[in-house]
Amino acid sequence: MSKTFRALIVEENPDGTPDRYIGERNTDELPAGDVLIRVTHSGLNYKDALSASIHKGITRTYPHTPGLDASGIVDESNNAEFKPGDRVLVTGYDLGMNTAGGFGEYIRVPAEWVVPLPEALSLREGMILGTAGFTAALAIYRLERHGLTPKSGSVLVTGATGGVGSMGVMMLARSGYHVVASTGKLDELDYLRELGAAEVIHRDQINDNSDKPLLTRRWAGAIDTVGGRPLARLLAAMDYEGGIAVCGNVAGVDLSTTVYPFILRGAALIGINSATTPMPLRRELWNRIATEWKNELLEEMAHDVTLEQIDDEIERILRGEQRGRVVLEHRG
Ligand SMILES: NC(=O)c1ccc[n+]([C@@H]2O[C@H](COP(=O)([O-])OP(=O)(O)OC[C@H]3O[C@@H](n4cnc5c(N)ncnc54)[C@H](OP(=O)(O)O)[C@@H]3O)[C@@H](O)[C@H]2O)c1
What we know:
This protein is of the alpha/beta class.
């Protein structure tokens, strides 16, 4: 049975600028898929803000409803694994990119994208975590497979007050690592300390002005959410066999480096792509997130908003001003 629902709709103006408004949609208009989900919560990611700003590299056609992340209740399913009433979440794949996403009160997706929400998580907690929490967990998993342990030395997190950064600081600290948080917001020192950062440094300390191919060995590991020149300078300061989990590009997409960090220090760049993580690993990590890494600090990171307020939050994340996670609650 078709249902009408509310969603953030982004249209492209003739001059290429976005027009965002809350509109009414119908479940008949959603793409084909196995599972119709009544979305209770979503979360705001940097990529959502790009999609909401007319970014053809992310979303090819508009009008569009962004939202890479959604948690909610199965409404209809033609897949035996999911039945109406099940609590589920979806992060990544094509959700919110070219498939109408979690900024609408309903989504319809293939069963292969759906994760049963772990018992220990509420629907809201699933979205405090969202893509950011999953990406941080994946980064730690990949760094540990590379050989990183708490005894290896200091681990740097760049963009530390952001969604992925906050989660990275918290999860690494919970796992016993000496975490150094790099931020542009030194007024958030108390927040980062509370998440578990042993040291907080200004991002300018990473992005040194020199072009030296190698700097003093400082980092056993890193989660980098910013890319660009800061990533190149961080690479020059890696310790022997150190690994950098490369997640993001808010500081730029170009990477200019010499081969020296690789051939003289054995450093490794480890690419992180949360959107396409295979389902078995996805489920394993969500279960780990719900047990090992779930704690009261999630509340510290959460900022709850309604659909009416999401527009302002999109502008804030584009300016790099967000702290932690914006959680959207659908009240329809
Ligand atoms: N590969 C993946 O699977 C994956 C998954 C999720 C996200 N991402 C990417 O990871 C990045 C972070 O995403 P997010 O959702 O966590 O975004 P976010 O909440 O906006 O966090 C980004 C943080 O980076 C810092 N920052 C902003 N502009 C900067 C600049 N020009 N130079 C240096 N630092 C800057 C700020 O933190 P401070 O003020 O504390 O420095 C900001 O809060 C994005 O590029 C996103 O697309 C990738």
